[in-house]
Amino acid sequence: MKRMGFRTKLALWFACAFTMLFCVLAAAFYFALKPAMENQAAEHCAAEAFRVAEEVEYYEDRGVDMEDSFKSFESPFFSVYGLDHRIIERNHMLTWLDELPVLAGASRIVRVDGTDWMVYDTEAREENQTVAYVRVSTKLDAIPEATGETLVLFAILLPFGCALALFVGFSIARRALRPVAEMTKAASAIAKGDLSRRVVAPETHDEIGNLASTFNEMITSMQNAIERERQFSSDASHELRTPLAVILASAEAALADDATDAERQQALEDIMHDGGRMQMTLTQLLMLARGAEQAKAMEFSDIDLGEFVEDIAEACQAEADSREISLHIDSGTGVIVQADLLLLTRAALNLVTNAIKYGRPGGNVWVASKAAADKAVLSVRDDGIGIAPEHLPHVFERFYQVDPARSEEGSGLGLAFVKYIAELHNGSVSVQSVLGGGTEFLLSLPLSQAPQQR
Question: Which tens digits make up the pLDDT trace of 113-122?
Answer without folding.
Answer: 888 999 999 9
